[in-house]
């Protein structure tokens, strides 16, 4: 069933944060699409032709797969953001696989069309650049967590990330998929989940994991997820509540606002102006 673009625009926090005039620039180019669970949005090495915005409870994951077939998650994206070359010149090769973790409606825009919109609107350009910075922070923190922290804490980080993006304590995730995201064997992960369940943090069911005590989960985990949340709050204006990531408040970014300079101005001068603005 086709997705209503007007509804979906409100169902993605990044798009909702845009001003009316900026939404009007994007609307003619937005294409509704629904992905099934496990579907591929783009593959590593392939040109990224579209930027895709998950809506409602849809969630995508960026995954790195090694030559021996093993894989690990590097970032999880829900209704707070976008997947694809959001700050690139468009149609550049992807470095990761983008896979749909939770099925649902999405909106997408041709990467070249988005580039044109960013040329017309410094606000869109700045907001999307801030989001890209936050996504990079998630990727880097995830890499550090995977290298430095035990599997129990890595698992808790991942569950908190998903919890924030779907706003429900019931996470529709299988042992097999979670093991793949964490880069471990399913049998090993099952033992880890049993330990976390015995600690009263989660309840494991068929095809789902339920968060029982988020506060205790945060205490038991490393601070990697908290660091990423803080970065989203500071740079993007993300607002979190008991149900996870609730909205993006552009007005909270005013003290970080970049000086508006021509889009194609040499990077050195633009970087200098942004630094003067306190970026």
Automatic annotation (TrEMBL):
Keyword tags: DNA-binding, Transcription, Transcription regulation
Top-level taxon in the UniProt lineage: Bacteria
InterPro entries for this protein: cNMP-bd_dom_sf, Env_Response_Regulators, HTH_CRP, RmlC-like_jellyroll, WH-like_DNA-bd_sf, WH_DNA-bd_sf
Stored PROSITE patterns: HTH_CRP_2
Keyword NADP: no
Alphabetical list of Pfam families matching this protein: HTH_Crp_2 (PF13545)
Domain HTH crp-type, chain residue ranges per copy: 149-215
UniProt protein name: CRP-like cAMP-binding protein
Originating organism: Methylobacterium persicinum
Lineage: Bacteria, Pseudomonadati, Pseudomonadota, Alphaproteobacteria, Hyphomicrobiales
């Amino acid at each position: 069933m086709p997705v209503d673009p007007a509804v979906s625009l409100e169902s993605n926090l990044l798009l909702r944060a845009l001003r009316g005039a900026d939404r009007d620039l994007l609307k003619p180019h937005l294409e509704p699409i629904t992905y099934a669970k496990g579907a591929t949005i783009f593959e590593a090495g392939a040109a990224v032709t579209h930027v895709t915005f998950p809506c409602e409870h849809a969630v995508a994951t960026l995954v790195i797969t090694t030559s021996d077939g093993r894989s690990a998650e590097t970032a999880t994206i829900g209704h707070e953001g976008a997947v694809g070359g959001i700050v690139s010149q468009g149609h550049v090769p992807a470095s990761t696989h983008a896979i749909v973790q939770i099925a649902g409606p999405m909106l997408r825009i041709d990467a070249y069309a988005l580039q044109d919109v960013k040329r017309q609107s410094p606000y869109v350009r700045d907001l999307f650049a801030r989001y890209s910075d936050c996504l990079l922070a998630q990727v880097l923190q995830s890499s550090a967590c995977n290298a430095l922290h035990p599997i129990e804490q890595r698992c808790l980080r991942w569950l908190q990330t998903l919890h924030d993006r779907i706003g429900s304590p019931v996470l529709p995730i299988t042992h097999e998929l979670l093991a793949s995201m964490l880069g471990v064997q399913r049998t090993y992960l099952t033992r880890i989940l049993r330990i976390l369940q015995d600690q009263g943090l989660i309840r494991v069911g068929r095809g789902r994991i339920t968060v029982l005590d988020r506060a205790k989960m945060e205490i038991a985990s490393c601070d990697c997820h908290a660091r990423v949340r803080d970065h989203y709050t500071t740079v993007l204006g993300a607002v979190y509540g008991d149900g996870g990531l609730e909205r993006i408040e552009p007005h909270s970014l005013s003290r970080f606002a970049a000086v508006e300079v021509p889009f194609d101005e040499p990077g050195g001068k633009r970087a200098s102006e942004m630094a003067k603005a306190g970026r």
